[in-house]
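Q: Given only this backbone (205 positions), what sequence would you predict?
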């Protein structure tokens, strides 16, 4: 299982306001193991059983901005409680440890920890990949964000279709996509998912 502990970072990101409401809204359409919830203050907790969903949560959190993220991978107590705030188990502790580590950097505040000590190296590998992705994301302009967001929501859309939806020229979309690093970033997504899945599948459940 994948537990994500997220904490607002006052004064960081696009706004110094509490980012949790925007985060919960951004995650509302995902079919998570339990709905994401605010825990205390500007903090939230997310639980999912799929590596690709864990990555999607990370990407949406980066888009919201102003959040430090700790990702813990491992077992959680069964049966799952009704509220994500009531979950317990090694993955929860790993997420808390990861969040503390994420808070020590002002560049890409993200860390990954495996509950099973055998997977520390793989957790470090996926953390490195995700931080590189995060570094690319944080440098985007508003126009680049809009183009990438549109592509993420509809990957099969043509640049002409995206341009019409956003009310800009096709050339503008083309430049935004190229300069955003989206193709390079998205090429790293499958690697991150594979590494996370390796930790999850071979951890005690």
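A: Predicted residues:
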């Amino acid at each position: 299982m994948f537990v994500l502990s997220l904490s607002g970072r006052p004064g960081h990101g696009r706004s110094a306001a509490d980012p949790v409401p925007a985060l919960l809204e951004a995650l509302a359409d995902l079919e998570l193991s339990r709905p994401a919830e605010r825990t205390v203050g500007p903090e939230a907790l997310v639980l999912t059983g799929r590596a690709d969903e864990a990555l999607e949560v990370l990407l949406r959190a980066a888009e919201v901005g102003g959040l430090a993220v700790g990702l813990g991978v491992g077992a959680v107590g069964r049966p799952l409680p009704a509220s994500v705030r009531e979950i317990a188990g090694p993955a929860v502790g790993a997420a808390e440890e990861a969040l503390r580590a994420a808070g020590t950097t002002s560049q890409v505040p993200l860390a990954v920890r495996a509950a099973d000590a055998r997977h520390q190296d793989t957790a470090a590998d996926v953390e490195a990949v995700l931080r590189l992705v995060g570094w690319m994301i944080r440098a985007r302009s508003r126009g680049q964000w809009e183009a990438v967001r549109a592509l993420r929501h509809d990957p099969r859309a043509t640049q002409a279709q995206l341009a019409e939806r956003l009310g800009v020229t096709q050339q503008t979309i083309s430049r935004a996509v190229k300069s955003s690093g989206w193709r390079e970033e998205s090429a790293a997504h499958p690697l991150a998912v594979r590494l996370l899945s390796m930790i999850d599948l071979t951890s005690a459940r």
